[in-house]
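Feature request disguised as a bug report, sorry. It would help if multi-protein outputs had a clear separator. Right now it looks like this:
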Amino acid sequence: MFRIIPAVDIKDGKCVQLRQGNERDVIFESDNPIEIARMWVERGAKALHVVDLSGSFQGRLVHEDIILRISEFAEVQVGGGIRDIRTAETLLKKGVDRVILGTIAIENSDDVKELAEKYPGRITIAIDSKKGKVVVKGWKESTCLFPSDVAKVYEEYDVSFLFTNVDVEGLMKGIDEKIIRDVVNSTDKPVFVAGGISGIEDVLKIKRAGAAGAVIGSALYTGKINYEELISLEED
């Protein structure tokens, strides 16, 4: 089933949405991320995409307490600042449904493969792309890898992928359908898509491309997309 997954990004204890991942360019801000998360669940969200933005910028998990409180009432996939296996495993043991691994999945793939074997179906590999190449460390460092290269590394493991096109992320100006289709076609694993979604038509394109779901942040928080209208796409 295709899933619509609202994003709950946490920075300095607040729920925020940033443009292009820029710490200084805040599109939305709320003092209570737990209540924001609860609101999405009450409106019908089957899962939440929770990102520790402070953790992503600092290179270590910062908001574990808030994340675990949200996981008490919602299915959550968590990313941001999970730069070592111990942190990832701690979150999984404490009730987080899935952990999203980006930098460590690129730089330490052997350990991440072991974790995937230990927790089948609970590891999501983040593939963040900028100008066609994979970026790491909060999107600040570029690699020589193409998104399909990362998918191939984990093709024998029970993982899912989260593809974010950084070039359009937070701009709410639409998606690049071709690159999404290329990533989806490069693997038989579930691929979730984030970045640039500006309307229902973008979500339909993501669904038609064969993705397993769409993670939506800015367009929901600014009212550009009505969440209740999106829910029907999950039922097709």
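(second protein starts here, but nothing in the output says so)
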Amino acid sequence: MNEHLPNRNDKLFKEEINPTFGAWLKNPANKFFLYSEGYKEAGKKLWEFCIENNFYANTLIYPLVFNYRQFIELRIKELMIMGYKYVDDNKDFADEHSLLKLWCIYRNEILVNIETIDEEILDNVERVIKQFNTEDPKSMCFRYPVSRGPHRKEHINRETIDLNNFKNVIDRLIYFFDWQWDMISHYQELKDEMIADMYREYW
């Protein structure tokens, strides 16, 4: 039997026996943050590898862009959860893959009730999100080369992409969403402290 082929004893998913080679899936930390940070870091590592090894850029570009898109989608959904909680609205994030639709919900339903931010900043964020959404409206274009049948079409319309420009712009978007995460987290902590103080004083 060829040792390079799967054999009858192979088990793909096994419990960790050595922390050096294991990962904790049931980590009690914020799940959305772990997922979004994981995709963000994977995108960063792929970009760094492509810059150092340009030969692989033509294949790694697909998971690279997908990872960053997945980060943005998860981060907006996480901000929606955090925002709804902060404003005491018993809503959940939308089961939606459109970055633009998710962003518009966050901007117009949640952010407007939490913080006043320069409209030019928000418009610029929305402009970049709209560009990403145009390129990949349903998070499929960088996962599959063609659309669903029966009449398949190529998913990606452009011929090339400037990796450095993509990374520079995506980093600005990441900075904005990290800022939003920190902002809502801080406000929630202040709110929790205020409520705790009220309980201590009156009960």
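Even a blank line would do. Unrelated, but nice: Residues 30-147+154-164 form one domain.
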